[in-house]
Design a protein that fits this description.
The chain is α+β, with helices and mostly antiparallel strands and about 130 residues long. The chain has two domains: about 5-55, no CATH class; about 65-134, Nuclear Transport Factor 2, Chain: A (Roll). It is about 25% helix and about 50% strand. It contains two helices and seven strands. The chain has helices at about 35-55, 65-75; strands spanning about 5-15, 15-25, 80-85, 90-95, 95-110, 115-120, 130-134. The strands form two sheets. Strands 3, 4, 5, 6 and 7 form a five-stranded antiparallel β-sheet that branches. It has a two-stranded antiparallel sheet with strand order 1-2. Strand 6 and strand 7 form a beta hairpin. The relative contact order is 0.12. Pfam families: PepSY. This is Peptidase propeptide and YPEB domain protein.
Length: about 130
């Protein structure tokens, strides 16, 4: 059990501030045993691991979201006849960058002529990395 005594020795004002001088006496009689210490370390390590995993989790943009973004950009050049996207991510490397990507394509009519394009988009951000005609 803890036994503390707190005594106010002096109260004084200085301008807008009030100060109270106090005296604390007592002794904390609790002792930390090794079980409490080990439990604290274990809880701290588990919390640190959980925070690290949460911060470094890679969340990908859905393939549908990427395709909608690409179609919106292509609609400015004319009506879209068709579009497709691979629903699975694949590895992509263009020196010195390595990432996971979606690949897809869009066909549209421009100036009365059908044109087809393929694109590569970053799966993590949805950013289009490359577009090229077929």
């Amino acid at each position: 059990m803890n036994s503390f005594s707190v005594t106010a020795l002096k109260v004084y004002n200085e301008g807008e501030h009030r100060f109270i001088l106090i005296n604390c006496r007592g002794k904390d009689r609790r002792k930390m045993n090794w079980k409490t210490f080990i439990a604290g370390i274990a809880v701290g390590a588990a919390a640190g691991y959980a925070v690290n995993e949460t911060l470094h989790r890679t969340v990908s943009v859905s393939a549908e979201t990427v395709l909608a973004k690409v179609k919106k950009a292509f609609k400015e050049n004319g009506p879209i006849d068709g579009s497709w996207i691979q629903m699975t991510e694949e590895d992509y490397e263009k020196y010195p960058f390595k990432t996971r990507v979606y690949k897809g394509g869009v066909s549209l009519t421009k100036d009365g002529e059908k044109k087809q394009y393929e694109f590569i988009a970053d799966a993590k951000t949805g950013t289009v990395l490359d577009v090229y005609p077929i």
